[in-house]
Amino acid sequence: MKTQNQTMLSENTLTSRPTDIIAGFPVRPGFFELNGATPLSNGVNFTAHTRHGTSCELLLFHSGEEEPFAVLPFPNACRIGDVYSMIVMGLDIEDLEYGYRIDGPYEPEKGHIFDKTKVLLDPYAKAVAGQREWGQQKIGSYHARVVRDSFDWEDMPQSTCKISDLIIYELHVRGFTQDSSSGVMHPGTFAGLREKIPYLKELGINAVELMPIFEFDENMNARTVNGKRLLEYWGYNSVNFFSPNTSYASKAEHNCEGTELKELIRELHENGIEVILDVVFNHTAEGNELGKTFCFKGFDNKVYYMLTPEGNYYNFSGCGNTLNCNHPIVRQMILECLRYWTINYRVDGFRFDLASILGRHEDGSPLNNPPLLELLAYDPVLRNVKLIAEAWDAGGLYQVGSFPASRRWAEWNGRYRDCLRSFLKGDFWNAWDAAWSISGSGDLYGGFYSDHNDNYAGYNSCVNFLTCHDGFTMYDLYSYNEKHNEANGWNNTDGSNDNRSWNCGEEGDSTNPEVLSLRFRMIRNACAVLMSSRGTPMFLAGDEFGNTKHGNNNTYCQDNETSWINWKLLEKNHDLFEFFKFMIRFRKDHPVISRKLPNAVCGMENIHTHNIDARDVTIPRDAHTFAVSFAGYDKSKGTDDLIYIVINAYWEDVTVTLPELARPGAWYLCVNTFGDGNSRYFYEKGQEPRIEHDFCMRPRSVAIFTGRNY
């Protein structure tokens, strides 16, 4: 099925005639507003642009070959301003790859490094050739391939789910199913992930956040350490922003790249699961002065990268270069890219890696009102997609709570991670921050409001997390006091030293039943608090059954069992999996956790914090036990929705007093992470024991109560 735009182009070109013959191919001026390569009924439209380049050549290759079979210089008739556009007729796109050569000044001190001998990858390529086999070293230059978009989304509507209603599950496409224990037919691929949709549905999450799936170079900086080949496994080194990683497809998709990914997204949507892409617009795989020139450097180094006055690369990304995001040309490319993924792949949201870079000026200084962030916030095509910022960068710009959000962006709440990790392991001086964070971080995000366009901020602005790809898994968070990254080959100097973790008495693997019991209780505590906090919860794939990376908190290079999910642990730790399932369902069943409801009939305030006696609403800074309550009237059920969460981070029993409820109300115990002596950690509705005024909190445990009529 053709898109409306493609149909229009086809009809317009059916009667078009060539105006010139170049290298034996009939050509004519193209559609200048269509970036990249677009197949037409009688040819292919090629469009590229360069601000400081002086000429452009199109190179045509047979598939898999390094020498072009034709070189087509763009004539003057095919140039308007800085844009070169040409329709080339008579091409067989089944046996075609293409690239460009750009001529221009070579003045490195001014930022110009044009080299007409370099074959350049189209920045707007929809597929990159030669990247099909994972881990296979790319020989020669990068080429692009022409892609036909014939995927039919039929009448699938865009999701209207608010970000506050999401439970986000972060995963790595390859690592999720690459291990043989996954039991899928197509391990390490989009198809393999698709096979796991029934599992995701059973778990109850309703959004997956995919670590980078744009084409990247896993062989960049490849090396061997202790007999293992280390690759850029995570994918945070983009080669191209418009093309999916072809090695994540289970089969070759020449000229229809992305089909398997679209099939995955469609089936996820059919099962009520949104798709958020982790996008890396802060740097590229071209690196610094010592890096390769294969795309942006060759098209316009001074435009695409932040450069010092001497022509060197600013490195706010920590990866050698920094994309010049607020240059108007780069801004337009990023907007067009996000629109492309939203329209053609029906993506529901984007998480922006090191997003503070997107708010830097061309000289690296922070902008008060960054044009790019505002542009994305108000773009009509992106109106309903989620925009999530990792609100810091490697240059020291930390903006958690102060990111220029235009009442539109959400943030990874790094403070939530840090203070809850500290408090849950027993750093009591974090009690205030922990209570604020569970309550929705209103001190950071300014409470809850909406404008006449239903733009939400406040509590909907924070994505709460305790674990993500970067750092310890939840199991390792309670199994290691220190990182153990020796396998990465940097003498354990890489990765964060600020982990706020606790090994529960033994470092690493243990057979001590008391240590293991405490570790799993700490994981239940973390899960219970995360799912009961206002804000959008996110957790790392595998945390729900105790997946481990054996103390490595920076597995960016570990394409092996260290990073791959070990599905055998699902059976071994099935009780933990059931606990996660219950807490996800509990959150969905109690909307008062995720949003402000009308005032409760019982008179309790919407949000409050409490000391061990609920009547005392002051929490000492060094408190080791406190409670948070949520209250509101649920119109859909016609009853109050009352939640009371108590956290005892102390190593001894503590008796707490619950709030008084207007008669005939009472409190019922739903969750007790310590258990009842029979490995029972939660109660299904109707089975909860009624609790009178006092409750004994066992050591290092979390309890959750609901209030309702007798």
From TrEMBL:
Single GO MF descriptor: hydrolase activity, hydrolyzing O-glycosyl compounds
Glycosyl hydrolase family 13 catalytic domain mapped to chain residues: 170-587
GO biological process: carbohydrate metabolic process
Alphabetical list of InterPro entries matching this protein: GH (IPR017853), GH13_cat_dom (IPR006047), Glyco_hydro_13_N (IPR004193), Glyco_hydro_b (IPR013780), Ig_E-set (IPR014756)
Documented EC number(s): 3.2.1.-
Pfam families linked to this entry: Alpha-amylase (PF00128), CBM_48 (PF02922)
Keywords for the protein's UniProt record, in alphabetical order: Glycosidase, Hydrolase
CDD domains documented for this protein: AmyAc_Glg_debranch (cd11326), E_set_GDE_N (cd11234)
Annotated protein name in UniProt: Glycogen debranching enzyme
Lineage, highest ranks first: Bacteria, Bacillati, Bacillota, Clostridia, Lachnospirales
Chain's gene name: glgX_2
